[in-house]
Every structure is written in structure tokens, then in C-alpha cells.
Design brief:
The chain is built from 2 helices and 4 strands; from the N terminus they run ββββαα.
Length: 96
């Protein structure tokens, strides 16, 4: 449905016939880490994320998985070769 609170006219998965179903009743503005992302929407009420209603929560445990302006770190082994991230995670789990 179309948002009627802070992002009027934009599609929102939390919007229902009764209003915004997201806790707090509306979307939260972006934080400093979101600046430069392609998913940022500028409206009269401010700047908002087009994908997630509470951007600060996405950045709480590290990099937001929706961020288009942040490049993932490349994992390299001792010899300097690139490692597949899935294989690196499996190796780290085996060492525990």
C-alpha cells in the first residue's frame, strides 16, 4: 500500500488500512551512516530508507545489508589469496 504518514506516495509493506503497522506508527529518519546510499528517499518530512523503516536498527550489529555505498571486506588467507566467505566461515567454525 501507499504510505500516508511520513513518506506519502511511496510503497510501504507496513502500511495497512488502519495505518502504519510498524511499532511507533511511522518510519524513522536515516542516520549518518546511511548518507550516500542509493536507497535513501528525500521527502518533505526528511530523508528515509526506501527498504527498512528503522535504519538505526540495521546498523546496530555492523554494516546494513541493504547499504549500496559500502563495499564488503575481502577475506584473504596467509598467502594473500582471496577466500570464499562461506569456506572461511566453515573453517572458523571447525576451529572452535
Amino acid at each position: 500500500m501507499k504510505c500516508t504518514t511520513k513518506r506519502p506516495g511511496f510503497e510501504c509493506s507496513f502500511m495497512t488500512k488502519k495505518g502504519c503497522a510498524f511499532p511507533g506508527g511511522a518510519c524513522f529518519e536515516i542516520i549518518d551512516k546511511c548518507e550516500g546510499c542509493a536507497r535513501v528517499i528525500t521527502t518533505e518530512a526528511g530523508k528515509f530508507c526506501s527498504v527498512y523503516p528503522h535504519p538505526e536498527m540495521k546498523w546496530r550489529r555492523g554494516v546494513c545489508n541493504f547499504a549500496t555505498h559500502v563495499q564488503p571486506k575481502v577475506v584473504k588467507d596467509e598467502s594473500g589469496k582471496k577466500i570464499n566467505p562461506l569456506k572461511a566461515a566453515k573453517r572458523a567454525a571447525r576451529r572452535r
